[in-house]
């Protein structure tokens, strides 16, 4: 997979691309990440990529010419162009999986007050990472890139992906490691039992309870299995 990131601040990605799992994925050639500086495409004599909006108003708008030329410089037939913007639909794990199956993503990082609307015909999809405003799309592009890269085969173990949060619309169950007792608090006995079926049931129950407590919205459209309904009923009785 290849990811092309279009930005006016490519230096922001230096730490992101040279650290931890992302660095390893790039070194193992499981993913290629290409940084494209939008400024290098401007034809403005002052090297500007932004200008004041027609009709007045605060702030500046990214100009159509340098952005469109930057997109065209890397766009191929199989490319999927994503504009990182607060007006996009919310980024979720399911979308990350969809993006992970594509061969080439182009992430456009907006800045200032946004982009010239004439750029939009070159965009396939708009994505937001939350209902808040950032100074630019660079942080959002890192979030999307991280979520997508870790799903590429060979980047992390397959088992780590199967049991993590948001898989099947459930939050991940609580995790523990050594020591078995710390400051008077014990690890749940079932996790020390070696009984795999009882551990599986405990983890499923904890995932259901944690999701019910912190993200009940994820359960609203869920069709519960008989086992899940029984585990939730038993939890209600315990209360």
What gap, in angstroms, lies between the N and C termini?
A: 48 Å
Note the total helix count: 8
Total individual domains: 2
Radius of gyration: 23 Å
Quantity of strands, as a count? 9
Low-confidence stretches: none
What profile does the largest beta sheet have? Answer: 5 strands, parallel
Strand proportion, as a percent range, falls in: 15-25%
Can you give the mean pLDDT?
A: 94
Biggest sheet: strands side by side, in what order?
2-1-6-5-7
- Highest-level CATH class of the largest domain: Alpha Beta
Class from secondary-structure proportions = alpha/beta
Q: What is the approximate shape?
A: elongated
Order of helices and strands: EHHEEEHEHEEHHEEHH
Report on the architecture of this protein.
33% of the residues lie in helices and 18% in strands. It contains eight helices and nine strands. By secondary structure, the chain is an alpha/beta fold.
Supply database-style keywords.
five-stranded parallel beta sheet, Alpha/beta knot, alpha/beta, Trp Operon Repressor, Chain A, 239 residues, elongated, two-stranded antiparallel sheet, single chain
